[in-house]
Amino acid sequence: MIEIFVWEFPLPPYFKICMELLKRYTISFGIAGILLYFFTIWVEKKHEGSMPHNLSSKTEEIVTIILPVKRYYEKCVDVSDSQQLQYSFNSQAPLSFNLHYHEEGVIHYPVKEDSIDELENIFQPEKRGYYCLMWGNPGEKEAKMDYHFKIINRSFSKD
Fold first, then answer.
1. What phi and psi values does residue 122 have, to the nearest 5 degrees?
2. Nearest to 112 by CA among 125, 130, 99, 129
3. Distance between CA 52 and CA 12 in Å, rounded?
4. Which domains, ranges and CATH numbers included, belong to the chain?
5. Per-residue pLDDT, 142
6. CA–CA distance, 119 with 59 (Å, rounded to integer)
7. Of the four listed, 5, 9, 42, 149, which is most buried by Cβ atoms within 10 Å?
8. What percent of the chain has pLDDT over 70?
9. Which of 62, 82, 63 is nearest to 129 (CA)?
C-alpha cells in the first residue's frame, strides 16, 4: 500500500477572511466590473477628442524636427482666454500648416495654410481650449523644420 503524505501549513487568518469575502461577493464584483467597463467606454466616447494625446505641459518650446515625406507633426497646448499663443516656424520646403481646436466633435481652423515655409503669428483665443499646431509634409523629400511657441499672458489696456 502506498501512503501519500500531505503537508499542511496553517493559513493566516486574513487569508480565510479574504476567501470568504471573495466567495460571498463574486457575482457583485463581476457586475460592478462590467458596469465600470461600460461606463469607461461611455466616458471616453463622450469626451473623445477633448484632450489631445500630445498635449504639452510646457509654456515655451524651441524645437528642430525632421518631417518625413507624407507625414505630419502636431503639438497641442492649453491656452486660456487671458493668454495668447505666440508661434513661428521655418522650413527647408513648403509645408501645410494649421492651428486648430476641437469643439463637440467639430474641428475648427482659425489658421490654415496649404503651402508655406515660414510663419510668425500671435493667436488670441476667445475662450480656453486645447489648441494644436500641425504641420504636414506633402513633398517628395523629408523637410527640416524649426518651430517655436510661447504662451504669454495678454496685456489688457484700460481705455
1. -125, 125
2. 99
3. 48
4. 60-153 (2.60.120.680)
5. 94
6. 19
7. 149
8. 90
9. 82
- Which residue's entry shows cell 505630419? 72
- Euclidean distance between CA atoms 79 and 50, whole angstroms: 14
Tell me how far apart the alpha carbons of residues 7 and 98 are, in angstroms, rounded to a whole number. Answer: 71
What are the tens digits of pLDDT across the range 91-141? 999 999 999 998 877 889 999 999 999 999 999 999 998 999 999 999 999
CB 149 within 8 A of CB 68: no
Q: Are 153 and 86 in contact (CB under 8 A)?
A: no
**Cα–Cα distance between 89 and 110 in angstroms, integer?**
17
Instruction: For 24, list phi and psi in degrees, rounded to 5.
Output: -70, -35
Which three cell numbers, joined as nine digits, stand for 49?
477628442
Helices (H), the chain: 13-46
Read off the pTM. Answer: 0.66
Residue 3, helix vs strand vs coil = coil
Answer yes or no: are the C-beta atoms of 131 and 100 closer than 8 Å.
Answer: yes
